[in-house]
Amino acid sequence: MTAELVPLVLILPLAFVHAGLWGILLLNLAYLRRAPSGTAEPPPSLSVCIPARNEADNLRRLLPTLENQDYPDLEIFVWDDGSEDDTWAVLSAAESDRLTPLRGEDPPPGWVGKVHALHQCTRQASGKCYLFLDADAELRRPDALRQLVARHRGSQTRVSSGFPRLRGAALLLVSLVPHALLTSLPWPLVPRTQLPELSALNGQCWLVDRDVYQRHEPHAQVKDAVLEDVAIGRYLKRMGHPPTLLDVQDLVAVHMYDGFMESWRGFRKNAYLLLGGTPLRFTLMYGGFLLSWLVAPLLSIWFLVSLYGLKLVTDRSSGMPIHITVLAPLSYLLGLILQFDSAVHHWSDDVRWKGRSVPSSAREEAPTAPTDR
Q1: Is residue 359 over pLDDT 80?
Q2: Is the pTM of the predicted complex or chain greater than 0.90?
Q3: Residue 177: closest CA among 276, 364, 361, 319
């Protein structure tokens, strides 16, 4: 093969990949701009379930926004997952008859802390609808819960996942989250296909009807999953409840990290698993990112323009500052380094988060039959 043919052999498949990314992105943007049909029915009782491990500062921001909600029938459960900071003191000092603080130590063997915390919250919940919310979230207006539930009930399924506004530090890395959410999974196809792999949730904010949750017990089914939201999204789709994605940026903000190193450690625990969680799957997927994000722009200026364009659209759609878009090549480069670093740490079984070891291999698919409650 001549040297002139080598770039061409690479350019053609890379052009196909970039075209696919643009197709998925435009499809998802149109999908997110749809308006769920409204309902005149009164809002159902709502149970908000929040996991908290060393989340004192985040809870000081979140709890007042929950207390300020005008939702008529609301209960809030926060599970203090063996925190080593002032999380329990913050919960105990909160003056709210809607809030029920719960407390536990380390999760039982075989359970991941967040999954166990949320599962325990559901043991207490009595609402007709469950909202699972991360502790670093914040409700942006007093009617946020009303609107969340209204959009959930107006969606086409009984499981809804939110696309919130992301805030905080390390936006060069954080901006890759909405980028991935909008360019990797064609959301309009989730309910129109049978493939469980073509499904996911955003664990930062998602809703499910109580009867669906109780029938299928998703947290109990994926109790050892670090990427519990992806596993639950796939499991519930197999059970006949494919999730829908709702744009809730006007309702919910998530302050992901307070600093660059914290964000690096946080993404490190997930990146390898997102790229398959095994050496073979990681190698194949990482090779694809390496070619698309690094090699392609070196082969043609048009690939660089395409990457800038993808980042521009996803950044504008998620409210990222313009300087983050200008520095898009740095975001992509950091993403590649982070993915490799995550793999190395998982291979050496050296991934920790909030004082706990993170499982180093991808879990098997969730079972196809629910466990009795």
Answers
A1: no
A2: yes
A3: 319
